[in-house]
Amino acid sequence: LICVYINRSGMENQLEMEGSEALKMYVLPFPSPGHTIPLINLAQILALKGHHITILTTPSNAQVLPNNLNVHTFDFPSDQVGLPSGLENAASAGDSVTAHKILKAALLLKPQIETLVQQNPPHVLISDFMFRWSSKLGVPTLLFTPMPIFVDCVF
After folding, report:
1. What's the pTM value of the predicted model, to 2 decimals?
2. Fewer beta carbons under 10 A from the terminal one: N or C of the chain?
3. How many Cα atoms occupy the beta-carbon half-sphere of 137 within 13 Å?
4. Looking at the annotation, which residues are catalytic?
């Protein structure tokens, strides 16, 4: 697991693209607000710096994303785990059983994501750490964790 820490004061210089090409980046957030919001914030910063960002998500989750980012949606396998259609985010889970089903369904997105990455590879994939398998897709991958660095150091 690679942890990348970017402080706000140094971010401007670290992300400047002077003399370099814009990168095509896919961003894969886990469908839960605590995971999605910080990753989307990072994606917006990268997009403002001129990089080509595409958020990989599901139809229900795409509805709440900012309009300035490209979105590629995948069919959420609700039926495979016993979820009603449209229930695609952990924030909508009323109990732990439903939350676990959302986790299982999110992990079942793997074949669809693999196909996209193989057919149209990005320069970089920034993936939520819940999708650890994404680091084995054959493209440079950063695993993103929304947890404070202290938590990673303790555990």
Report:
1. 0.82
2. C
3. 30
4. 35, 128
